Amino acid sequence: MQPIVRCLDLFCCAGGAGEGYRRAGFRVTGVDIRPQPHNPHRFIQADALAFLRERGHEFDFIHASPPCQAHCDLKHMWNAKEHVDLIGPTRDLLMKTGKPWIIENVPGAPLNTPIILCGTMFNLGTGDAELWRHRHFEFGGGLPPILTPPCQHRRKPRVIGVYGGHGRDRRRKANTQDFSTDARREAMGIDWMTGAELSQAIPPAYTELLGRHALAYTANAQGQRTAIAGTLDPVVVPNSEPDRPPKKSWKKVITGVDNKASYDTVSPDERVTHNNRRH
Ligand SMILES: C[S@@+](CC[C@H](N)C(=O)[O-])C[C@H]1O[C@@H](n2cnc3c(N)ncnc32)[C@H](O)[C@@H]1O
To answer: How far apart are CA 38 and CA 193, in angstroms?
Structure first.
C-alpha cells in the first residue's frame, strides 16, 4: 500500500495548484483566508501565515502561492491599490518548518533563482490557440530544482491568455473577449472553476510535474520504499525524523457545495467530508 504523503497548499483559492499535487499522489490540504466552496480538496479557512507557523511541520511538503497583485501588471494601473507582499514572510516561515517547499508567483515577483513553467511546455490550449501562462517557482527546504524545457511558443496560430476574469487572444491589440469560460477551462485543464477563479489558478499540469519530483524527494527523505511513475528507482534512506503526533487544536471549516459551513476540530491526518466530488 502506498503511504500517505501530505501536501499543504497555502493560498489555495479554488485548488488549481493543489489538484496537480493530488494527481501526483499527495493528500492535499488547502488553506485560504476566504471560503473556497469550489475547492475540491480538504480545505481549512485560515490565515496562511498563522497556519504555517503553527501547523506547517505536520505536512511532508508545502506549496505556497502568495497573492501576486503586488507584482503583476495591474500594479501599474492608475487606480492600483497598495498590496502587501507576503512572499518574504512566507519564505521565512517555510524555512523554519524544515520541510521541502515551493513558492509560486508571477514573472517579476522577488523569487530566488526560480524555474519558469509555461502552458506550451505541456501542450495546453484550446482549439487553434496555445496557452501562454508563465509562472515562476522557487524551491527550498532541500528540494532541488528541476530542469525545464524552453517554451514552445507559436506552434498554433492563436494565443490564449487567462486573466482578470476573461480570456483574450494575446496577439490582438483590442481588449476583446475571444474565448468563452469553457474554452479557458479547457486551456487550463480545469473544469470546476469560475472565470474569476481560473484567472488566479495554476494549471494542474504544472504542479503534477513538480509534485512527482517533490514526492520522489519526500519519499526518499523519509526512507519509504515508494515506486513513483516517471521517476528513478526508489532509494531507501533511514528515517531520522519521526512524525510528530498531530495536534488537535485547529478549527477546520468544511464547506459543502451547498455553501453551508460546519466546524470541527480535526488533524490533517483525519479523513473528513469535504467539497470533493473527485476523490
Ligand atoms: C493567486 S491565488 C492562488 C491560486 C491557487 N494557487 C490556484 O492554483 O488555484 C491567491 C489566494 O491567496 C488568498 N490569500 C490572500 N491573503 C491570504 C492570507 N493571508 N492567508 C490565506 N490566503 C490568503 C486569496 O484569497 C487567493 O485565493
So the answer is: 7
